[in-house]
Amino acid sequence: xxxxxxxxxxxxxxxxxxxxxxxxxxxxxxxxxxxxxxxxxxxxxxxxxxxxxxxxxxxxxxxxxxxxxxxxxxxxxxxxxxxxxxxxxxxxxxxxxxxxxxxxxxxxxxxxxxxxxxxxxxxxxxxxxxxxxxxxxxxxxxxxxxxxxxxxxxxxxxxxxxxxxxxxxxxxxxxxxxxxxxxxxxxxxxxxxxxxxxxxxxxxxxxxxxxxxxxxxxxxxxxxxxxxxxxxxxxxxxxxxxxxxxxxxxxxxxxxxxxxxxxxxxxxxxxxxxxxxxxxxxxxxxxxxxxxxxxxxxxxxxxxxxxxxxxxxxxxxxxxxxxxxxxxxxxxxxxxxxxxxxxxxxxxxxxxxxxxxxxx
Length: 360
Ligand SMILES: *Cc1c(COP(=O)(O)O)cnc(C)c1O
Known about the structure:
Elements: E1 2-3, H1 12-25, H2 33-46, E2 52-54, H3 57-67, E3 73-76, H4 82-90, E4 94-97, E5 120-126, H5 135-145, E6 148-152, E7 160-161, E8 164-165, E9 172-176, E10 189-192, H6 196-206, E11 210-212, E12 215-216, H7 227-237, H8 240-258, E13 264-265, E14 272-273, E15 279-282, H9 286-298, E16 301-302, H10 323-331, E17 332-335, H11 343-356
Parallel strand pairs: 1-16, 3-4, 3-5, 5-6, 6-9
Antiparallel strand pairs: 2-10, 7-8, 7-14, 9-10, 11-12, 13-15, 15-17
The structure holds pyridoxal-5'-phosphate.
């Protein structure tokens, strides 16, 4: 069975070493030494000044929305994982969908201004599949209309834009370190900001608002993560360059054999070093996509329709037409990509796709 992704597993002995330490210290959670060590190593690896390690990528978005005191309407993308939209609604705001660019699959900045009203306070955009948004255009619009920008960078570990980690950009960037992501800590997430005041706020928000054992700085929630999760991150971080390299090789393989007129691939933003977190292909129509999916499933290969359905069709959001997102969602497939995927397996996948398209 070949799933769309499989979590990276470090050698078990390396994880067990960390477990011994956790047992000896008897310190399981609440900002322990491994959480601190992971934060430090991540800052070094990403060359980034500030970050906070959190329980997951969804609480990261929720804390970001709260820390920037957003309310009313949030401009967002309909083409993302559901957590991008659901977090906005969960925090009592209204998602206002702006359609995507059909080449990059990211929010189309040319369409943002038409959706801004006097209730708009922020933009929450996803760097879809790890591909950077049009960061400059979005920053200009935000400045002109005095809006905050949050990037859902859940897919982005390892992506750089103009020489810096993608996590540098926006008032806040959030990420997910869930087991299905390229770099993971089983469950996990993080927020990034360059603003010291925003950082301070998110730090107390992550820990119930505590300033000290008996004092509170303000409203908070449980956004913490544990020593066990941090330990997995410390193990996996040692292999991150191998993980990124294997993704790059796998993407090159798919690209080489699947460059056909019926298959459209994602256009990567200029100025970026892409992490190849996913390998989406867009077919000419939904029937063709479903036929390929069915053919692959016959040989126990399970691509996924990321992101179908388009989030503008959720039953708890207002009706906003996003025809491009709906169209891409209907005919996209993400092909298997994970550390242990072999060339033999990729060969089999490619052959089956080409056969379904009558090339072989
Ligand atoms: C995975 C993901 C999330 C949620 O992250 P969790 O760590 O699973 O809570 C949010 N946004 C996007 C785009 C994602 O892919």
